[in-house]
Each structure stands twice: as structure tokens, then as C-alpha cells.
## 1
Amino acid sequence: MSQTILVTGASSGIGQSTARLLAERGFTVFGTARKPDPQNHESFTMLALDVRSDESVRACVDQVMAKSGRLDVLVNNAGYAITGAAEETSVEEAKAQFETNFFGIVRMVNAVLPGMRAAGAGKIINISSLAGNTAIPYSGLYSATKFAVEGYSESLWYEVRPFGVSVSLVEPGFVNTPIGEASPAAARPVPAYDATRKRMLAAFGHALEGGIPPEQVARRVLQIVESKAPGLRYRVGAQATWLPRLRNVVPWKMYAAGVRKTFAV
């Protein structure tokens, strides 16, 4: 019987590419968006989901179970990035960033785990980022959510392993997706940061344009889905592979100089 897979944030970018590839490979795939396009002609079923809402999460998982009778794999991809200096970001904006990127994952995991434990099988795949290993200037809150996802997932890996449930992190570097265009700016800009922020955002946009295609991330997710014993961390792209290694071996001043040069800060 075909495995059933739920991919959050599947209206564009990594989520859409992942849902399409998994559907092409014969899996029963459900994608989600806050407001699914009624004219959608995807090869997978789109469901409405707001990961910020307990009620919406429960309703979405209930729909999958009603339609398919099972849920074998959860791919937590929904998220966004807020840009701006840490000082420019209000507590309300910070909370909103965590509500989607971190607590959204917590809600989804809590909703699917009882069924996976009962089945004695299941896979949870959390889309993290290179930003969960090395912080990006002027994306402090986004980086903080990804660092949080890393710690949460690693702890969860230990806890659910005895029940036959695996947890994996996918850590891409720069990916050529609309995330940069869709990134809201912090609402209260501080003039002192204007020049540096402008340079950083230009460098960031350039890095995204030259990033790996989302299909490359999707193929890594497929690898995890098809693996009998998936690992905890999967890095995607050259940057995500060598930068964390570099950070572990070179002095901080040297590493930080490289980051500053990359982001023009």
C-alpha cells in the first residue's frame, strides 16, 4: 500500500517541489497552504492549514486520516523569514516568527505522533536551514527559529526512536525560491542600520538567485522517505556541507570575517 505523506507549506518553493516529486513517485501526497488555490491542478491534494492554529492543525490531520486512513510521513516545511536588525524587530514580530516556524512544527508533531506511535512506524522530516547552524545577520529571528528547530528535533529523535518513529532534519544552504521576495521587513526601521541593511539584503538576494533549485531539496526528502533507517541530519548543497565544517575548525575571527564579507556587513 502506498505511503501517505503530508507536506506543509506546499503552495510554492521547497514544499511544492517536494510534494510534486513525491506524488510523481507514486506516494499519496497531501500539501497544505493557508488559502489553497481553488483552481489548483497539482498532482497532489491541497488542504487548508494554518500551523499557528491548534484547531486548524487538528482539522487538517483529521482530513488526511479520513481520506487516506493513515499518515506515514510528515514533512514540516511551512515557514517564512522576517528581515531586519534584531533591534528593529519588535517582540510581537519575533513571536509571530516563532509561532509559524517553530511552534507550527510543535503543533504538527503533537498532532501526528499518537497515530505514528500506535502504528509503530512513521517519519517526521523537518525542513531546517544552514541558518540553523550559522546565524545570518539581519535575519536574527529567522536564524533563532531554525536553531530552535535543530535542538527540538535532536531531542525528539531520542524520544520517539523506541516507537519506530524517525526524525530527520533537512538543512539546505541558499535555495532559489520566493522566500526573499516574500520576506516581510521589520516594521520599525532604525536609521543607523539603513546602509548596512541595504547592502546585506542586496547580497542576500544575490545569494538566493545563485542558490540551489528547490528540486534538489525535494530529492533529499525523497531519499529520507525511501530510506529504511534515515539519519538525523541531511545537508543539501555545497554551502550547507562545508560551512558548518569550516566553522568547527577555523578561529571565530576568521570565520566571522568570511560571513561579514559574504553579507557585506
## 2
Amino acid sequence: MKRSFLVLLTSVILVGFVSARAQTGADSLLKGKSIEKELKGGESHSYSLAVDKGEFVYVEVDQRGIDVVVRVYDPTGKKTDEVDSPNGERGPEPVVITPDIKGVYRIEVGALEPTAKPGRYAIELKMQHPSATTLAGKVDQLFVLWDRKDSPGAAVAVTKDGNIVHARGYGSANLEYDVPITPSTIFHVASVSKQFTAFAITLLAHQGKLSLDDDIRKHLPEMHEFGTPITLRHLIHHTSGLRDQWESLAMAGWRLDDVITKQPNKRCMSRTSLTRLERFRRPANP
């Protein structure tokens, strides 16, 4: 009798599972278990995930030869998110879910292009735990995608009233030598600084401390006279007419992997190098 009961109970469970799978048409996501499938244009695959209100859920879709778009639907069927990173056919699509309601969420993975050739992808539930309540934990959740050794990352500092209240590094500064990013890691900010410089100049203009149409030599009198005025507006909009610095340095015999410092050296300050640089400068259009 007991054996018959166990067989019957097992059958009921299996039938229920198969029935639920048939109704949702979705594979269940389990933490740490990767599911890999082939996908082509016009197709989509669905996955189900039971979550609780107030949780932090991180799902990663690794594109392996096809560009996908990931859509998230809550238990009522409402679409709550759509993810399509600029990674193209290779790399992760990070999906973060912070549910407002408890229930089974559906994650749909589809080909971005209707005519896309077949390619593969893998989907995995990376994290599922209560949302952070501390400042440090909330920052960690924001940078979860980059918080690993095989990823580029960032050095983050949170300030309050002029004081640093949280600082941490995420990702790797150098993959070859396994060097992690720390709060003191130095970055070559390069062109990232342009938007902040332009914003600062615009603020000064609004305060009446300068004009965007000022000749730059008014503020930088040591600047070379090109015969045609170059204004702050020209510099902000990249319309000064000056050659790109990398092209000029290449013409002067520099290599892109040469060390760049703020201190003048014989090579960059020699009369020959300066003459060659001056020769290739072009004045701005009035």
C-alpha cells in the first residue's frame, strides 16, 4: 500500500511539473546552473524565476555568436525591463531585477535582428538575495557586473559634505598580471574629461566670468598666434582647426606607446620637433 502511494505521489508531481512547463513554455532558472541554447532570427526562448519582494536578482545572458535582446515580465505579464547592451554578438547582457511584487517572473531571450543567423547564448542566474540596506552594499549591487577578476572595472568613491564615506575598486586593472582595481588606481581619463571641462566653462560663461567667444589667447597668452582667432567655443565643439595631437606627435617621430608625462623632455621640446609640429598646424575657420 505504501509503495503504491509513493508511486502515485511521484506521478502526480511529475504530471504537475510537465503541466506547468507546458503552460509557461519556460525553463526554470536555478542559481549557478548555466543553460546554453542555439537561437536564430525570429525566435525567442522563455525562462521562469520565482522571486520575492525586496530581493536583488542578477541574471546574465552570455552572447556567443548572436546579438540578443532580453525582456523581463512580472507575474501580471507586464514588461518591466528590456536589455540590449552595445556588446553586439559577443559578451554579456546584464539583467538586474528588483521585484516590487512576489511571484514568478518571465525572462525572454530573443534575437535582436529578425533575419539573424543561428548563434548560441548561455543564461545563468548569478545572484538572488535580499537587497542591500547599507551604503556599501548598494554600491556593490550597482557594480555587480564588473565585480570580478576577468572584467574591466572602476574605482568608486562616494563623498558626503566633502568627506569620502565609501571607496572601493571593482574589476581588474591588468589581466596579464592579475592586478585588481583599488580606490587608489590611476586611470588615463583622456577624453572622458572633455564633458566636465565644457560644463565648467559653460558655468563660468553663465556667471559672466568669460565669454564662449573669447579668443583663447585672452586666457592662455602663451598660446601660439595662428593669424586667425581661436575661441573657447571652437575648442568646446572641436572646430578649432588645430590638428589632432596624436597625428602631430606621430609626424614628429613619436610612437603611441611612448611614455607621456607632464614634464618637458629633450625629445618633445627640441627645436626640430617644435618646428615640425608648427608646420602641420592649421588655423581655425573664422
## 3
Amino acid sequence: MTRTTAAITALGGYVPDFKLTNKLLEEMVETTDEWITSRTGIKERRILKEEGKGTSYLGIKAIEEMVARYNVDVTDIDLLICATATPDMPVASTAAYIASEIGAKNAFAFDLMAACSGFLYGLSTGSKFIQSGVYKKVLVVGADKMSSIIDYTDRTTCVIFGDGGGCVLLEPNTEGLGLQDEILRSDGGGRHFLKIDAGGSIMPPSQATIDARLHYVHQEGQQVFKFAVSNMADVSAEIMERNNLTGDDVSWLVPHQANMRIIDATARRMNLTKEKVMVNIERYGNTTCGTLPLLLWDYQNQLKKGDNLVFAAFGGGFTWGAIYLKWALNPKK
């Protein structure tokens, strides 16, 4: 019996025009370009400045780019998953709004929240709907307007994050391509190290929480760094071992863009040269759920059908994981 897998058959991306450079940040908080670059690898990040536009706008623009480039008919989409840590608003589904706005009238939609691992989890979830045989076209969006939850007086977080989004279309494949294997993990004991204290059910919004600036991301950098380095590298090495892959067999590492030192540590553990590691952190910073699809968007013309890709991510909660995928597209001219 031929195995059906979920393969990526189209993709898109979008980043806002405004560039928040390290030089601009030097004027906002006590930091320097040298300090930011040496510790994170980031030189600039994109910020969505337009009033009244949120995460849905980033997702919609990415989908529109995909539709134009790959000639996708949105009415054929069965399901839209939006992985995000910054939904447009509480309760109302951002995914449902995106689906309506792009004209995907035959799709049902839902949001998926797993911090920076959201797109990885979304890729896994979408693939299961394809493998079940029930649905034929699943659109997975990863997008975040991180500037909406960042305190630009906190130099430990404001230098890291940016806004952006991307998407991939999953379809059935019987050629042995697409998603091959996955290792997904979580540990709720880590939620105190990377969080927003207020605005949820434990601490609803109030004037006191606003005055105390409790609606912004708080991060204990050293703890997060330690967990991210070990766990992202561990699952990436584990998925290679489980599938009998060596560094020579892996065409590309597609790593979450949180910190250049974490990316380097993961690549070393996998025995990969830097030429096999997708990196755009210097231009976009950490776009949370947007990092992985934006990497594919930036590198799509270098990817060849049959390439072995290993995706790896780590996020607040803690959440982390790795996916092994065989690329199904030749470069789009």
C-alpha cells in the first residue's frame, strides 16, 4: 500500500516595510549595535506600524504573495491553521478572519498557540489532516505582530523581536516526499521564564496591571537560552539518528530564529556546515511563529525536489520539537 504524506506545494511570506535597526534602538534604550549583534546576531527587524492592522494582515499578505506566485485557487482550501502568539483579539479566531478575507469560503479554520514552536506544531497538525485522507489542501500560516506585546523600554526583549508572517500549502504526496517524521515536546514547568503576566484568566486586565506594565513579554534570558540550546539540539540530533541521517544527508537545517548562538549550537550538534543552515535573523529578528515559513520563503529558490530538511524550534511554555521533511518542489522561476 502506497503511503500518503503531506508535502509543501506552495509557500508565501511577508514582512512590513519599516526597519527598526540597531542604530534606532540605540536612541531608544541603553544598548549598542555591537552588544545586540554579538549576543543575538540581529541587525534589524521589521515592524508593522500601520494603525488598525494586526497579525491577520501579515498572514493575508503572505497568502496573497503565495497565490500570485504559485497560482493557488483559495476556494480549494479545506482547512486554514493560523499559528500565532499574537492573535488579532481574544476569543475571536484570527484564522477564521484570514480565511474569510482571502476568499477561502470552503475552508474551516482555527488558531494554534504554542509560542515560537507554533508553526512547527501547525505543520504537524496540518499533515495529519492530509494523511487521514479527509482533506486535500491545508494552509498553515505562521504570523506574529510581536511589536504589539513588546516593552520598548526593556532592552532585554525589545532588541530581539520583529513582525512578519509566512504560509505553506500542504497537499497529499505518494512519491515518498513531504513530512517524514517528527518529535514534538513540551514542559509546562518552563512557563515562568518566558511569559506575559497579565491579560489571561489568572490575572485579568486592570488599571493596576497596565500601570505595572504586566502586558508585555517578560523573559529570563539565561534560563531560556540554556533550555533552548540543549532541547533544540537534542531533538534535531534525535530525529537524524531515528531516520539514519548523517550531516551529509541533510540538505538544510530550518531553525527557529531566536538567537544566532542557539542556531550555531544546533548545527554543530547535527554536524552541519554553515552553508546548510538557513539564517535570516540579522534582517528580521525573532518573528516567533513567522520564522520558519519566512526562512522557506527566503530560500525557496535554493531548494530542490528531494532535499532533506530538518525543522527545529523552541518556544515559551516550554515547547519545542523537530520535523524531518523531504522537499517536493523544484525552484520556482
## 4
Amino acid sequence: MIDEILLVDKPKGMTSFGVVARIRRVLSEKAGKKVKVGHTGTLDPFATGLMIIVTGKECKNAENYSKLDKVYEATITLGKTSSTGDPEGEVSDISDKVPDIKDIQLAVDKFTGEITQKPPIYSAIKIGGERAYKLAREGKIVDMPDRKIKIYSLEVLSYEYPQLVIRTNVSSGTYIRTLAQDIGTELGVGAYCTELRRISIDKYSIENARQLSDFGIND
């Protein structure tokens, strides 16, 4: 498991750095020396799903896996917003209007193709050399630059108010939290992402990923 990539299913509630640290500890113990381990793109703590972990000499090729297209499944809660776009933020009631499925489909259809997206202020993007989330937590005003992203497909899997479940195939750099918020804004009811799972990264699938328990990690 050294000098290769590992496909790992990140559990809910753990940071991506936590996953890397645990795998590094296990591999280093087995090798009897410190093993270099890195990730190729983070998932938020509330999210689950596929991470590509690079180990040993493969770490120098990390960028080869970091700008690939991805597929996500997400649960979006309508009628409320979150300061962070996810369950970890301050949640506010916005509207008790119940959109029908036709409204939902019309709104969703507007977000396919190449679109402009403003990343969330609670993100790891660097602004003036500082992480945006750090500036936001310090109460500083963060002006996030818009970016062009591509949403190749966006499918409604189920809808039972207030829960909307979608699957989407997107380009690297797309924030699903922002997509959820934008759908809520389009509907005029507000929304935030309550569950998020990464299903695939390019040709790499969650079906081939290992659980942390497979590495003997149970904490």
C-alpha cells in the first residue's frame, strides 16, 4: 500500500486531514518508518464518500488526480438556509412555501452546462494568502471571486418536501453547498445541503473504495 493510490470511503464527521493522518499512522507502523501520505482533494466533515489518497512516491503525482470530474449525491433541505451552506452552520427559517415537482425541475434545469458560481466563504480557497474559512471565522469580510464551472448532468432522484435528493456530475472546483443554495434562491425558498456523498472521481468509483476499518482504523 506504499507508492500507490488508495481509494477510501471517508466517514461522516471526520475531516479529510483526519483520514490522511490515520492512514499515515497505520502505514508508518507497518513499514517501521514514516510514510508520506497525502490527499488529492478534500471533503467537508459532514460529507462522506470517495477520496483518492496518495502514498510514498505517488505523492509527487497528486496533481494528476486533483482536477478530475466528480459525481455527487446530495440531500438538499428547502425552506431554510445555513451560514455555511451545510449542517455545521447557523440555520435560519426562510419560507414555508412548498414548491411542486414542476417548479423543482425547472429550477434544477437552469443549473446545467457551464455556469458561474461563487464559492462559499467557508472554504479552503486562499484569499490574499489566507484560507477563506479562517478569515470568515475571524469576522472579516471575504470577497469570493466568481468562477466558471461545468455541470454535465443534474438529476432529481427524489423529492418529498422539504428534502430534495439530487445526483450531479460536475467539473473540478464545483461546490455542491453553493449549488444547493443557488437552487433554493432560484425557487425563492432558501436551501442548504444537509447530506453529501461523493460517488466517483473520473474513472474511480466508490464501489472500489475501502473503509477505514479495512486498515484496522476504528477511531
